[in-house]
Amino acid sequence: MKKIKPWKMMLLATMAVSLFTACSSQDKTATTTSEPVTTKEETKTNTPPDPLGKYADLVTVTEVLGYNPPEDPRTPQGIKPEENAYFKDLKEMLNIEVKYKWTVPSSQFEQKFSLAMASADLPDILELDPKNFEKLKNQDMLADLTDAYKQYASPALKKYMESDGGFAMKTFESDGKQLAIPAFEDPFLSSQQLWIRKDWLDNLNLQAPKTIDELEKVAEAFVKNDPDKNGKNDTYGIAAQKNLFFWGFDLRGFFNGFGAYPSIGDNQSAWIKDSEGKLIPGLIQPEVKAALGKLQSWYQNGILDKEFALKDENKSVEDITAGKVGISYGEWWYPNWPLNLNMDKDPKANWIAVQIPGLEGPGNTLVPKIRSSKLFAVNKKMKNPEAAIKMINFYIEMGNKKYMDQNKAEKGYVYNWFNPRIYNPAQIDTIYTEVNKALDANQTEITLDDENYKNVADVFKATKDFLSGDTSTASRGVNWGQYFSRAAKDGGWGMTRQLKESKAYVNNEFYGIPVASQVEKGTQLDKLMQESFTKIIMGAPLDEFDKFVASWKSLGGDQITQEVNEWYTKQATK
Amino acid sequence: MRHKQSISRKLFIVFNTLLLALITVLSVIPFIHLLSISLSSNTAASAGEVRLWPVGFSFDSYVYLGEKVEFFRSLWVSVKRVVLGTIVNLFLVFITAYPLSKSNDRFKFRTPYVWFFAITMFFGGGLIPTYILVKNTGLIDSIWALILPGALNVWNMVLMLNFFRSIPKELDEAATIDGAGHWIILWKIYLPVSLPSIATIGLFTIVGHWNAWFDGILYLNSPDKYPLQTYLSTLIMSMNAQMSSISIEQIKAMENLSEKTLKTAQIFMGALPIMIVYPFLQKYFVKGIIVGSVKE
């Protein structure tokens, strides 16, 4: 080996490096080849379409799966996706068999799916995000589901799809053809509230804050006055992490309190309506500057963690669990996770939700128009597109009471491996109403008998267990999490309902797929925003914000604004 | 050979030892951290309280790991992959390097052949073409998809080639005079002489195969065929950081996700075999290359 001369070594090393980089930069550039689709057979049956009718001959459906491990710890060990008990029932009830072309961990799904699109090797039923939907739509690869939906959709499915006035369905229609069935949720699930530790407030004799100024006093006390009474100076004020706008433990709610609506959570600008009915980017409005100014002073006096710019969401979760921080902006589900971890670790801990503090009294939260990231479509080559609709019917049907003894994780039912699955968009609200109805009437069991039974019954049991202190099925924290996020009147969803009723919200008006210039410039603008905002919070002069606005506009922001407004006048379903 | 212990030399030894000790500690700390998390209670681990010593000592995660079918299934796949892959790699490297180490007058088209191999070091087909190639050759979803693409590592081949060149020509010539052909020279002379470099390249290959995870995700279509590292990657990357909102289903997943101790136990066990292999192969690194075969 001593014969290799140094220069040769270096040359080889550079070659090797260039080889790797060359490989990794090429993965997204390949274009998709589409095969012409000519055959579209219709299965003619003389009997009227039955949403759960059994096929006379076995129908084989191919799918692909981006999977997570089974979520329920009671699921049998070592079970494989194709052994899912749902499939056994599906075959018995509908005579449909599901074959996986491949399965891949969900974090790699995106990449593997683009490979499959590039090699034109797509399954019958497709789980898509809006971006891939648009691609396949433009290549004419998607089957028309209009008739299949009309004839075969079960009453429950139709009810779900009409629950928002058909708004979501319409988004995935093209030339009068229904090309996909969207899985969407109540947009209000995204609304922000302030989670705060009640036991800390009580320790310090403080009231829950209603304005930013009050919040500042509380947060300051949480930093300096030893709210957990452990004699150590080990707490800080408000949870924050390097992503200012994210799906959790971020500062969306804080900005909303200032009447600023910078982002819905994806670091791209949110779009609000101005007085003339045009859409303006929330990210560059003057209110954002005021909010940043406040954050800057909070960073200085220790209300924000000095290391927030180095933390990700996992670190925030650790701090909440460990009892280092007692205030966090977030959505209705926090009790479910991670507040339950904190409750289990510290029996004294007690969290409450309040409306986000504003400049004068409680503020308004930003709410999207539509909350959907996934939809189901059918390959144009598939012979029985209605099978997909029937499978959705089947999944909804399995929530009914009569299947409850069977449909359990320990018997091999893994719901997150079954596709296509559509939920009741008003699932959480149904749970809230039904559980409270049963509680008020002092029932011992849920009397509801429709497809929501399982979801309602699960929360009802957790609520009962929590209120009676029963920890035989789950820990106190887990039971509380179910109860306080979904059923409690002053809890996560209870608070969200109040926001909705008192109209304490502002809509993000843009809900289409990203416009062309967003795709092109979005990442760069996102980076610019992250850098400028973090710098300002950490002490750069506040006027940097004006510089940021100028660069944002010239680097593509103006173009995006124009394209978004074009979309708004032409395509938005108003 | 005894050095005179001058002051500067003593100083050098002290600093050298300290520096090496520091580097050692820095490399060991992550493993100790992992080990302590895996031996801690779940609440302490999810609150991030564990540093270098377990908090709330518990063996639970290892007991649970013992029942985890997925872990052992993928461990077995990894073992198969390492054994098969290393044999195939070493064999190909060995028989390719031999002719290419000969001079141009003994092997006429040597230069074009060398370029043929070298060119793959500059240019790669890219992810999608490679995927299509693997798919169309029918390797998809079998363990050979992890072994055959990249079965000949050109880098290792060049190492081997240069090592062959450092073997004195006299050995070769002596064998030829005694009537040995290329096969005999290759297997009876070159093989025993090059054991140290085979060990080196073998170690690279073993570590490479053991650590590779991405090809498993690309080419294997069901998780029960995943090698260990691919399986481990599914554990630690189950949350997509790109999303802007979290669905009800993902919240349920989060609620059940907090088995941090079990994850670290698996990661630790995954790293253990390769840490054990190292010391056994290491002695070949230090050994002299060719000892006393020829006197010049």
Automatic annotation (TrEMBL), chain A:
Signal peptide: 1-21
Record field: compositional bias (Low complexity): 28-37
Region (Disordered): 25-52
Keyword field: Signal
Protein name per UniProt: Aldouronate transport system substrate-binding protein
Taxon lineage: Bacteria, Bacillati, Bacillota, Bacilli, Bacillales
TrEMBL record, chain B:
Entry keyword Transcription: no
InterPro entries hit by this protein: MetI-like (IPR000515), MetI-like_sf (IPR035906)
Every ABC transmembrane type-1 domain range: 71-278
Entry's localization field: Cell membrane
Gene3D superfamilies membership: MetI-like
Membrane topology reported for the UniProt record: Multi-pass membrane protein
PROSITE patterns, A to Z: ABC_TM1
Residue stretches spanning the membrane: 12-32, 82-101, 113-132, 144-164, 185-210, 261-281
SUPFAM superfamilies referenced in this protein's UniProt entry, alphabetically: MetI-like (SSF161098)
Keyword vocabulary terms for this entry: Cell membrane, Membrane, Transmembrane, Transmembrane helix, Transport
Protein family (similarity comment): Belongs to the binding-protein-dependent transport system permease family.
Protein name: Aldouronate transport system permease protein
Organism: Paenibacillus macquariensis
